[in-house]
Amino acid sequence: MTAKIIFDVGPLQEISVFAISAPMRDYRFIWYLNKSIEPDFIKGEPYIHFNKRQKKEIPFSIFLCQEYSDMFFIGNRTENHALFKQYKGVDFFLIWDRELNKNEASTWKAILKSVPGLTLAKQIEGDALVDFQTIVAEMEYQKMDRKEKEQEL
Length: 153
Fold this sequence. Notes:
CATH architecture: 2-Layer Sandwich
Mean pLDDT: 85
CATH class: Alpha Beta
Helix content: 25-40%
Number of helices: 3
Largest sheet: 6 strands, antiparallel
CATH topology: TATA-Binding Protein
């Protein structure tokens, strides 16, 4: 008798992502965002992305929320590179390591829209989240690797 095994592979983890376009530097956007909300974002260690074509490491800025460890802000562009090439028109992403409910999503959309100069604040959903899940996993690995190196010193 032959056994049949069916794999139902779901996403790596549930996350929520807002794509943000605003014609300003990341630190300026964060400054406006920090003025609008209670928890402040602070600059964290950059995410280092290896560009296979140019064979070099490219840093992308990250801002961490001081009160909520499941939320962070990452720049999509640096000089001539985009972290997510399919989103070349997007400047930043606000990412949560969990799924937002509808009320939270609408609240954050309103907060983002209060930032002067904002041209786009759109929640990304569905299959488009797979690339973000991969980057989040890589970022967690880099964070863990940094902690291990600090402990060795």
